[in-house]
Design brief:
The structure is a homodimer of 223-residue chains. The first copy, chain A, is an alpha/beta fold and 223 residues long. In chain A, 36% of the residues lie in helices and 11% in strands. The N and C termini of chain A lie far apart (41 Å). Chains A and B meet through β3, α3, α4 and α5 of A and β3, α3, α4 and α5 of B.
Amino acid sequence: MQAAIVLLSGGLDSATTLAIARSEGYACHCLSIDYGQRHRAELNAARRIADAFGAVEHRVTAVDLAGFGGSALTDAEIDVPVDGLRPGIPVTYVPARNTIFLSLALAFAEVRGSRDIFFGANAVDYSGYPDCRPEYMRAFEALANVATKAAIEGHRLTLHTPIIALTKADIIRRGSDLGVEYALTVSCYQATDDGRACGRCDSCRLRRDGFKVAGVVDPTCYA
Amino acid sequence: MQAAIVLLSGGLDSATTLAIARSEGYACHCLSIDYGQRHRAELNAARRIADAFGAVEHRVTAVDLAGFGGSALTDAEIDVPVDGLRPGIPVTYVPARNTIFLSLALAFAEVRGSRDIFFGANAVDYSGYPDCRPEYMRAFEALANVATKAAIEGHRLTLHTPIIALTKADIIRRGSDLGVEYALTVSCYQATDDGRACGRCDSCRLRRDGFKVAGVVDPTCYA
């Protein structure tokens, strides 16, 4: 089995991405990032999901993004919006977060001899983040292919983003077909530490609408 | 004054790069990364250099690369080579290190509203690292310019690598002209915690030869 690195946040999208990577036969090395997010529920969920899908390993790497501030997800002084999606990039955007996460995944891939990174970015039912767009993914893959010793030695790295063009409902249908237990996942931007969702932030709204449109029972535990 | 982010390792190259950024009139926000390197002398040196050059601030951000392993600079079980430079990429290469450092600099730039990152990479008298080459720098700049909210809003980010094409001797001459006190810098891969250099690793050899060729007295404190 080929080794793949799977970035696992603990949310619905990355859990589905892990299920897809497993269904394609990869031995999955999961990576979660402890970046100073508001709550611990995400990382706990990531651990449960990695276990449920028979990941080879699950590594949690710490990086202090809260020290930079500038986002509602890392700075307790900035409120998470709960009034619905608005035009523009919301305050839940974390500066350069995906670039940091992918660069850590790239390091992990090189150490494990993996040429495949799976990343659950989505550019359809999303919050308008710049680093979720297909052109961003292409630019990162181009960078990865000049950045490493493996690249110089001729091993091409592929950045897989299997759900980037799916609607939230399609992601949920796909994951349900693959046996993802969405009760294990936490999407809420301000979940309680034991994983209950606020039901009002952008991420909760997108998730709830997704279950509704998919015709799948929403197993989310709301606070 | 325009704000610039300057990645500061504590070594000769990044100290010179900071001096160049200051000479070009930037207000410098220095960023050092505590990534689990073998010794603390580097970060202490970075602090002294930032002070000496009147940096606006000096932030040290922690990221756990030692957990990944795979390099003599982060894994105490892998010896630092002391027999001179050989063909190929040495074991002191840290997987994806510069990608991780630059992505953190990108986050810092976005939070500080800066459009300029200064990075002291060098592709002449160097150890053959893939992520020190000009094509790597171009790929990162391209990524940065699709990655952020600032990019979407039309603010172009420039990655400055002012010493990338200089020899070590030319870097030292340039820095000396700008008043860099090289006694403050630590280049050794396995310096003692109080900053004394081994004199035998690749980095020490490149540095010592640089001073010799430049005709500048080597102020390095050897162990």
